[in-house]
Amino acid sequence: MRSLPLTFCAAAAVAATLLPTTAALADSEPQGRVSVTPSAIAPGGEVELWVDICGKGKEAKGNSDAFVSEAHFAPADNKGLFAEARIRSDAEPGDYDVWVNCKGGKGKATGKLTVVHHRQPSPVAPVRAGGGGTATLADQAAEQDGPGTRHAVTGLVLAAVAAVAVAFRSVRRRRSATD
């Protein structure tokens, strides 16, 4: 009766010994790192990716939740692969994983990139060289004020003056042509 528990214990010990070995054999492809430059980027920007795990003259594909589309790697130098990827314009700020799989399943690599949102820079003390720093203020003032009744009346008066001038000139030409 004691042989049954002993058999189960022996089977569990064998399974525990073989399980890590099986997992290691299943994941025996080489692991590497993806170099992402720049590592912090704003949405819509472009990053350069470099990996050396796949070997010379190979190809690879990379992806990330931050990318617009899949990145296709091509040979870059004597031993590495290079690709460029564009960051989605609607990517939220934060860290994103980047993963690369070598063609033919001969290796994979991982990396990280950070999406950041930047505010538009605004001059603190603009120089007196043609209004550079005041452009932002003028734009804001134009949005707030806009053309009003005064501008409409001025435009109508100018249009009336132009119409009278054209009429006067055409009458004058007719008189000189008949003379």
Overall mean confidence score, pLDDT: 76
How much of the sequence lies in strands comes to 25-35%
**Sequence stretches where pLDDT stays below 50 over 5 or more residues:** 21-26
Structural shape: elongated
Task: List SSEs in N-to-C order.
Answer: HEEEEEEEEEHH
Which class do the helix and strand fractions yield?
alpha+beta
The CATH architecture category of one domain equals Sandwich
Distance between the termini: 139 Å
CATH overall fold name of one domain: Immunoglobulin-like
Question: What portion of residues is helical?
Answer: 25-40%
- CATH homologous superfamily title of one domain: Immunoglobulins
Number of helices: 3
Q: Regarding CATH, which class of one domain?
A: Mainly Beta
Largest sheet: 9 strands, mixed
Write down how many β-strands occur, each being a DSSP E stretch of 2 or more residues. 9
Rg of Cα set: 36 Å
